[in-house]
User: Which sequence fits this backbone?
């Protein structure tokens, strides 16, 4: 009988723990399901690190789960996809964005705008074109790095997930 009460207490704690994520979640974006998955991985890692775990390899398993969580953060915060922007600003100065009104108008009479950008250290338009070409090449490299990180994350999870239990 005591087991039943303990189990109900733990179930209520679990609902309370997940409730904020579920409350803020939506069905139109996969990122909310990743947040739930990450939360469950964190809970599993915490359990495996606790004194409640029985398995001999629990600490190692918890460490691998935390590695997966760190990779998830890097991949889904698009850390690799945006790193080229920092490099461009280090090399060529701050990028300044501006919106220029285009002469053509929407059917309802509202003006259209085109976004432009220029780096502070660009000497002239020709130099800015060179910077833009470097920016484009670095963007392609960062995009490829981001895609590799995404594949690495899910290969790591696939390789390890069946061992993430007590």
Assistant:
């Amino acid at each position: 009988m005591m087991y039943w009460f303990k189990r109900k207490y733990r179930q209520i704690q679990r609902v309370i723990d997940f409730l904020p994520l579920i409350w803020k979640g939506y069905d139109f974006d996969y990122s909310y399901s990743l947040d739930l998955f990450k939360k469950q991985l964190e809970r599993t890692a915490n359990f495996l690190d606790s004194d409640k775990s029985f398995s001999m390899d629990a600490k190692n398993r918890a460490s691998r789960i935390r590695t997966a969580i760190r990779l998830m953060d890097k991949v889904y915060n698009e850390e690799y996809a945006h790193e080229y922007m920092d490099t461009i600003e280090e090399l060529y100065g701050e990028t300044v964005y501006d919106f220029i009104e285009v002469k053509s108008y929407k059917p309802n009479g509202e003006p259209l705008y085109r976004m432009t950008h220029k780096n502070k250290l660009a000497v002239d338009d020709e130099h800015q074109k060179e910077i833009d070409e470097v920016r484009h090449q670095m963007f392609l490299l960062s995009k490829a790095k981001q895609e590799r990180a995404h594949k690495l994350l899910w290969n790591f999870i696939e390789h390890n997930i069946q061992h993430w239990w007590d």
